[in-house]
């Protein structure tokens, strides 16, 4: 009878050989594939093992294991709220190949793999291929053909012993022991619990994987139907693009920092690491309540006391939306004060979208000062700039929604065109 304790040797020999060939650099064939896998991955595989071994498990194991493949496909369709029944190995394998290696897939495959490893191959042959399933699906009971019904007094005695159902057929000794062992195993099995959307552990600064791309979380809000996660792209395909995902619609996988792989920096003087740290510090917003000047004091000019006073008023935490009128005389540095205020707001994450409206004769000068002294780029939307924008954007696209920071003259803004 099976002991229902996972053993690598209980897995099919062909699967063990393929796992060693794909996952291990080399192993002693005299020791055996099962011992080699146990030495590297432990006495029982983890969910993370499936992440690495999923292509091999799919092509070597699920291609021929019909019962396991049927159960995994059915469980995945139920977890993904998909309708329809997939029949045939070709359709099921095509469905599995199209799926992303997500946490839900790994947990379902892991549960089935552990169930297979807890059944000895000799007992599996004795039971003609009947293997217990996790609690998400009741195990199939061996059918007995032409089994006579029990007499009422015999049925009551067996019901009291918990052997058969009230209207069930009479079971032989071998089947009764099998049912008892399966019930004990299912009651004590340690199976993964799929994490509901409400328990998503995500916060600003976390890195998540959504739709096969990596994103940096900038904002996370929990609602009645799950989490709304606003992100900025990190992968090459979505770099610096913004998006919003709902946990009820998309599979949001949070990357665990403890599992990050440390890579040595081979650049001279650790130049790449220092540049990365500098870029990270520049992108990290300053706390909202911090009124100290962080970037405006490093501009290409000497700031004066009255200019710093205007910046301090704009950064006052009591003024969530500051409204400031700067009425200094000509030549006292109003442009510098504006640049200092804008640079500090941008550093705190409060200057994502900026529109500068100036008289036409100072538009070019204002754009030049903001860029050269404060490194604030603005798109000039005068008559010439608008013509260039129309060549790049569709006719129905609003340029102010495409360019986050723009500078425009009063005359152009008042124009009916």
Automatic annotation (TrEMBL):
Keywords: ATP-binding, Helicase, Hydrolase, Nucleotide-binding, Plasmid. Gene3D superfamilies: Tandem AAA-ATPase domain. GO terms for molecular function: helicase activity. InterPro entries: P-loop_NTPase, SNF2-like_sf. The keyword ATP-binding applies. Residues 121-130, 141-159 have a biased composition (Basic and acidic residues). Residues 121-167 are annotated as: Disordered. It comes from the Bacteria. This is Possible ATP-dependent helicase. It comes from Rhodococcus jostii (strain RHA1).
């Amino acid at each position: 009878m099976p002991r229902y304790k996972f053993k690598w040797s209980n897995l099919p020999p062909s699967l063990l050989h393929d796992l060693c060939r794909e996952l291990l650099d080399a192993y002693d064939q005299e020791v055996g594939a099962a011992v080699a896998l146990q030495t590297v991955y432990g006495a029982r595989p983890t969910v993370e093992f499936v992440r690495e071994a999923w292509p091999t498990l799919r092509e070597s194991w699920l291609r021929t294991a019909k019962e396991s493949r049927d159960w995994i496909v059915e469980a995945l369709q139920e977890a993904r709220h998909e309708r329809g029944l997939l029949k045939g190995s070709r359709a099921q394998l095509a469905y599995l190949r199209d799926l992303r290696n997500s946490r839900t897939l790994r947990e379902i495959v892991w549960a089935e793999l552990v169930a297979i490893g807890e059944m000895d191959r000799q007992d599996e042959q004795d039971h003609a291929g009947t293997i217990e399933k996790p609690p998400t699906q009741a195990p199939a009971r061996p059918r007995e053909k032409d089994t006579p019904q029990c007499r009422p007094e015999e049925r009551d005695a067996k019901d009291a012993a918990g052997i058969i159902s009230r209207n069930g057929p009479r079971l032989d000794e071998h089947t009764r022991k099998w049912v008892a062992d399966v019930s004990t195993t299912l009651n004590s099995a340690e199976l993964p619990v799929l994490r509901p959307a409400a328990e998503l552990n995500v916060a600003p600064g976390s890195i998540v994987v959504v739709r096969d791309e990596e994103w940096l979380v900038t904002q996370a809000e929990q609602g009645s139907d799950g989490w709304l996660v606003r992100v900025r792209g990190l992968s090459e395909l979505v770099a610096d693009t913004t998006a919003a995902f709902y946990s009820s619609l998309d599979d949001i996988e949070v990357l665990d920092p403890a599992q990050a792989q440390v890579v040595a920096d081979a650049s001279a003087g650790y130049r790449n690491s220092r540049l990365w740290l500098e870029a990270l510090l520049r992108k990290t917003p300053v706390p909202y309540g911090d009124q100290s000047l962080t970037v405006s004091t490093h501009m290409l000019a000497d700031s004066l006391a009255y200019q710093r006073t205007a910046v301090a008023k704009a950064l006052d935490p009591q003024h969530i939306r500051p409204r400031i009128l700067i009425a200094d005389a000509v030549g006292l540095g109003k442009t510098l004060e504006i640049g200092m205020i804008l640079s500090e707001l941008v550093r705190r994450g409060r200057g994502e979208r900026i529109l500068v409206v100036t008289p036409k004769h100072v538009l070019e000068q204002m754009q030049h000062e903001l860029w050269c002294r404060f490194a604030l780029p603005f798109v000039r939307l005068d008559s010439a700039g608008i013509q260039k924008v129309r060549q790049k954007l569709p006719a129905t696209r609003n340029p102010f929604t495409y360019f986050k920071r723009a500078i425009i003259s009063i005359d152009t803004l008042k124009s009916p065109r």
